[in-house]
């Protein structure tokens, strides 16, 4: 093998290692999102717990009630439901069952409006 062949293999190996690091980092970011409430400047720490999504730990924009009775932010539960133990209980005929929580959404919107 020539020097160029070895360099090509080395660069490909480095690329594969970079992909593994990226994938690992991405999995960590999904499991431990950086947009948790403590990192948001200007948002008080006395936010009612019911306004926070148990998955993202952020204020819910579109709260929905899953069939397990727990309220989640819609985007969080859609993207992360498979991380919930016994997530099959959230399914009906292969579909994720979610119900809008209009009352909570209105409370959250009022809370955020009062912050301004």
UniProtKB/TrEMBL annotation:
<protein>
    <recommendedName>
        <fullName>U-box domain-containing protein</fullName>
    </recommendedName>
</protein>
<dbReference type="Pfam" id="PF04564">
    <property type="entry name" value="U-box"/>
</dbReference>
<dbReference type="GO" id="GO:0004842">
    <property type="term" value="F:ubiquitin-protein transferase activity"/>
</dbReference>
<feature type="domain" description="U-box">
    <location>
        <begin position="46"/>
        <end position="116"/>
    </location>
</feature>
<dbReference type="GO" id="GO:0016567">
    <property type="term" value="P:protein ubiquitination"/>
</dbReference>
<dbReference type="InterPro" id="IPR013083">
    <property type="entry name" value="Znf_RING/FYVE/PHD"/>
</dbReference>
<dbReference type="InterPro" id="IPR003613">
    <property type="entry name" value="Ubox_domain"/>
</dbReference>
């Amino acid at each position: 093998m020539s020097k160029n062949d070895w360099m090509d293999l080395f660069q490909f190996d480095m690329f594969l290692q970079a992909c593994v690091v990226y994938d690992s980092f991405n999995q960590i970011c999904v499991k431990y999102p950086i947009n948790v409430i403590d990192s948001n400047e200007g948002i008080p720490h006395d936010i009612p717990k019911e306004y926070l999504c148990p998955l993202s730990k952020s204020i819910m924009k579109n709260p929905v009630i899953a069939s397990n009775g727990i309220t989640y932010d819609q985007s969080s539960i859609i993207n992360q439901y498979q991380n919930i133990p016994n997530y099959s209980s959230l399914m009906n005929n292969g579909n994720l069952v979610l119900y809008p929580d209009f009352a909570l959404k209105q409370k959250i919107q009022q809370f955020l409006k009062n912050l301004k």
